[in-house]
Amino acid sequence: MDTHDTPQSAAIVQAGLEAMGRGAWEEARSAFEHSLRADESPEAMFGLAVALWWLGETRESVRCLIQAYAAFRRRSDPAQAAGAALELCFLYHENLGNHAAAAGWVARAARLIDEFDLEPLRGRVLLIKACCCSDPDQSEAWARQALRLAVEAGDRDLELCALSEIGAALIAKGTIDEGMPLVDEALAGALAGEGQLDTVVVTSCRMMESCNRCADFQRAVQWVRAMDRFIERYGCPYLNATCRAHYGSVLFATGDWQYAEKELLAAVELAGDAMPALRGEALAGLAELRLAQGRVEEAERLLAGFEDHEAAAPVCARIHLLRGRLALAVATVQRRLGVIGGEDRLEGAVLLELLGEAEIGQGQVEVAAERGRKLGELGDTLGCRIMCARRATAGPSSRARRGREASPRRGRERVC
User: Fold this and answer.
1) Which residues of 223-241 are buried (b: 16+ CB within 10 A; e: fewer)?
2) pLDDT tens, residue by residue, 20-34
3) Do 66 and 78 meet the contact criterion of CB atoms below 8 Å apart?
């Protein structure tokens, strides 16, 4: 606590921290705002930033964090300043999709850690670099370094987040059976109270992202049910557009279209302040739902201007197929496959199924069947069930099957 803080201000800040511990975010916000009217301490500003983030006011949260960082620097408190810088990196990357700003803040934190020898924070820099990295091999390497430092320091929060990040990287590479147990373990520990609230957020988002990536929707449903008590007390942890979009996709895939629409619309709203790249994820999820509802023109409107976004590629290809634009569907899929580096990546499974449908439409049935066979073999090698499943759908009967699956399944209970 700042030595210039008055006893009354310190008591109000403490009341705000206690309210945060109960998940009473509006009460915490009020306490911190009251404290700041009397004394603009960086602790109160940082606490207000956290409360605002849980209330979904991301832009205001970032503003407060920047002010807290500056105040910690003026007070010559490099550890707290580095912590604020790392939080800013996370928000810029995960909530706003601003990778340049995120890179700047993690670099600032790393410099402070080097300059003032803040070893306990070094693992957190590695973790956030892993979170922000699009290369799963590099992400895994950084996360494993963070895990080693976490174990040495006895930092449970860092340990759980690093385990989750390693698992997510392995899943992104297609080694599902090796990665998913780590994702499960990390979230179990976080929900059991081994980590702070932020640790539940990170591990639950990695779970939702990973389950959505490998189409393990039943696992996601089971975890959401296991999180009921946490959500009731603290609120939904999916407070960035990407995680919310993944959550909506899980609801959609399990037949809960009503609540899927609610969550996907919330994801689009959360993405309102984000960079265009992040909005594309939420819009793609909503467009996919609109396609399943038979609202093709609306799906096309949602994706206007976002056709080159990675999440939009499969939806755009489906639109081309429905419109009979087979050559465009093939071009869309092949362009995306070129970006991800070929057909042996997990993301390629759904793309290859779509490519097979286009080829069948073009009369290339044997080509599509051979691609399905190779995809299944790759799934067997990687232990990836979604790729094995795509083997069956990359054949002549896939269109009829997709037509049957396009109607919502009734009678499913809510997953949340």
Assistant:
1) bbeebeebbeebebbbbbb
2) 999 999 999 999 999
3) no
The domain 1-76 is classified under which CATH number: 3.30.300.130, 1.10.10.10, 1.25.40.10, 1.10.1610.10? Answer: 1.25.40.10
Among 108, 7, 2, 95, which residue's Cα sits nearest to residue 52?
95
Q: Is the dihedral of CA 52, 57, 62, 67 positive or negative?
A: negative
Residues in Cβ contact with 13 at an 8 Å cutoff, skipping those fewer than 6 apart? 1, 5, 31, 32, 35, 41, 43, 44, 47
Q: Which of these, 320, 319, 376, lies nearest to 348 by C-alpha position?
A: 376
What tokens were used for 341? 């580096």
- Cα separation, 83 vs 89, whole angstroms: 10
* pLDDT on residue 342: 64
**pLDDT single digits (tens) 108-150:** 999 999 999 999 999 999 999 999 998 999 999 999 999 999 9
DSSP class of residue 120?
G
Q: Which of 251, 245, 246, 250 is nearest to 264 (CA)?
A: 245
In angstroms, the CA 112 to CA 247 distance is 36
Q: Which of 283, 251, 290 is nearest to 265 (CA)?
A: 283
> Which residue stretches of the chain have pLDDT < 70?
1-7, 273, 342-346, 378-416
pLDDT at residue 74, rounded to an integer: 96
The structural domains of the chain, with segments of one domain joined by +, span: 1-76
Is the pTM higher than 0.90? The answer reads no
Amino acid, res. 278: L
Structure tokens at 54: 């849980």
**pLDDT score, position 330:** 92
